Amino acid sequence: MGSHFRSYIWDPVLILSQIVLMQCIYYSFLGLWLAGVDSLVQTNRSLDQIFSYEVLGFATMQGRLSMMAFILNSLTCALGLWFFIRRGKQCLDFTVTVHFFHMIGCWIYNAHFPAALSWWLVNVACMALMAVIGEYLCMRTELRAIPVNSGPKSNL
């Protein structure tokens, strides 16, 4: 039985807990970003800002600020991938999973499939940012040089 570098055992409990953790990071930080931009322009907070695809748009100030919050949230979630997933190969998987569950949530909240082009553009851009930045951070950590102890050697 030889040892393999980074051999992993199938662990569904770990995978499910990481999915739940990333969903919690996604929605809690999105809520904080939206609360921050709402406090700047003194608008009311509602679940529509998170789940209604009609709120995201280029025409209104609230729509542009909501888009900015989604973009900032993708950067925050990339840090979540770096801290909790720690594998560059899995960043795209978890990013797509988070956004897939968000799409399902929007579908349920609105009672119909998201059809607004601005919603799709924002979510695809956020997916790309989250995956690329998360993978970059994880790969930087994975490729860090392993320090070798170069202490005094014994003379035999």
TrEMBL record:
UniProt membrane topology term: Multi-pass membrane protein
Residue stretches spanning the membrane: 12-35, 65-85, 92-111, 117-138
Gene Ontology terms describing biological process: Golgi to endosome transport; Golgi to plasma membrane protein transport; protein localization to Golgi apparatus
Primary subcellular site in the record, as a coarse category: Golgi
Subcellular location: Golgi apparatus membrane
Cellular component terms per the entry's GO annotation: cytosol; Golgi membrane; trans-Golgi network
UniProt KW keywords: Golgi apparatus, Membrane, Protein transport, Transmembrane, Transmembrane helix, Transport
InterPro entries named among the record's database cross-references: Integral_membrane_SYS1, Integral_membrane_SYS1-rel
One Pfam entry name: SYS1
Oligomer status and interactors: Interacts with ARFRP1.
Purpose of the protein: Involved in protein trafficking. May serve as a receptor for ARFRP1.
Family label: Belongs to the SYS1 family.
Entry protein name: Protein SYS1 homolog
